[in-house]
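Margin note: ligand = pyridoxal-5'-phosphate.
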Amino acid sequence: MTLSTDGLAHDDVLAEMAAAASGDADWRSGKTWSLVYNAGPEVEAVSKAAYQAFFSSNALNPMAFPSLRRFETEVLASAAALLHGAPGEAVGSMTTGGTESILMALKTARDWGRARGITAPEIVLPLSVHPAFDKAAHYLGLRAIYTPVGDDFRADVSAMRAALSPSTVLLVGSAPSFPQGVIDDIPAIAALAEEHGALCHVDACVGGFFLPFLERLGEPVPAWDFRVPGVTSISADLHKYGYTARGASTILYRSRALRRHQFHVQTQWPGGLYGSPSMTGSRAGGPIAAAWAVQRFLGSAGYERLTRAAMDATRRLQQGIRAAGFRILGAPTMSVFSFTSDDMDIYALCDALEVVGWKLDRQQLPPAAHLMVSPGHVPYVEPFLADLNRAADQLRGGAPAPAGSAAMYAAMAMAPDRSMVSEMILGFMDSLDQR
Ligand SMILES: Cc1ncc(COP(=O)(O)O)c(C=O)c1O
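Resulting structure:
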């Protein structure tokens, strides 16, 4: 396609886009179990209005847009308070998402290490951490040393201890992990980091705006935030369980001194003096404004209500999934979990559910299906369980698995040669613009 000479009318452009979206995942009907965190139409409307109002604003220059500076400062202050950072001392930045927050945490750790004379910095992290850490380590030239998880899918802290070296700058734990939704033993990891003179990052991209409210509801939540001595930074995504517009996350530090290592300054540029807090240059105003607006709209009572709704749906789902003969992996704390089967191909089950519109993420090591539950799923728990039972009965009764990706996932999960798997994924990404 080339750029057409004449443009189209506004309505025609939108009609073409609506048609293009007709095959997209139907997240409003609860069909997606990741990617979208639906808190209902009222929250969406506030978020959209705020986003639109600040659609063209650019937070690159906070002096030109004092409104955005205020929104960002207030969102970060409330996040720091929620995670029990010391007032005035715990600070952070808003970023475009979990991946950028993690990139920033690792950049900070690298430069903090360099300031101490560590020239080839290493980070120690359990295999369960999100791939954003691998990507960040790769981009930043850090050596990532992965350690196994235990039978409970949580970080094996003694294996992390054994992986430490004089070049270790950072240890990582998740609250919770994406794959099984389990919270690592953060007090033990942070104590190990402190003992070793290293930093400790907690990835709460998923849990950052959920676990604090779960705790307020009186549910048991293991210690994971700045109340734990030795935790030096936390990533917490607004665009997940903060229910704000896509493109918003926070990276928070225990101290202002630590955040300094994140910033970048260029003083020799003919274009002027340039200081940038995070990865991006221009910083879209929409997600910052929408985050502030949603937080103002919901307040802590709104977040508690949504947390309760998502947790109730989660419990009903887990109960129904167990009753249908499946096994939940580990002991998930919040609304993120995975399940597997001891008597059927779990990937074939995912394919069967996909035929009726449900999009579940397929996991490996071990093979499992993954769910992230939002308040928007509340009305869809029973329809999902009904479809799950129907699909499971059919497969157990010997019905052929529908044509889908089960064989491909099984082959990829089992392939001992991971470079072959890597080539397949590269080929897939490379081919997307050829379809
Ligand atoms: C635990 C965890 N960390 C980090 C990320 C990365 O977040 P993003 O996709 O916003 O970059 C995710 C995404 O699902 C996650 O689950």
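The chain has a mean pLDDT of 96.
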